[in-house]
Amino acid sequence: MVRNALRDAEMLEQYVNYLQTRVAKQQAVVAQLRECGLDPHEDQVVLDNLEGATEALAQQLNQLRAQPAQPGVAERRTATLHHAVA
Predict the structure, then answer these.
(1) What's the pTM value of the predicted model, to 2 decimals?
(2) 70 is in which domain, residue-wise?
(3) Where is this region: Disordered (predicted)?
């Protein structure tokens, strides 16, 4: 279970990094359109969606990382033995 959580966190982190790259590129597109005097409305909508998705996934990643690792069977057995000895 812990291994799955670590893998999920790693995959989520990679996707957040990818989205951050996309956000930066889309910001450049919007800025370029404005520089040229063109209406960046559709590109701004795309940018807003990318930023929202990136923020939501980054929060999810932070929550996933903040969760305490649940002990596996071996750790529980060891904890039980230590408790019985004490």
Answers:
(1) 0.70
(2) 2-85
(3) 67-86
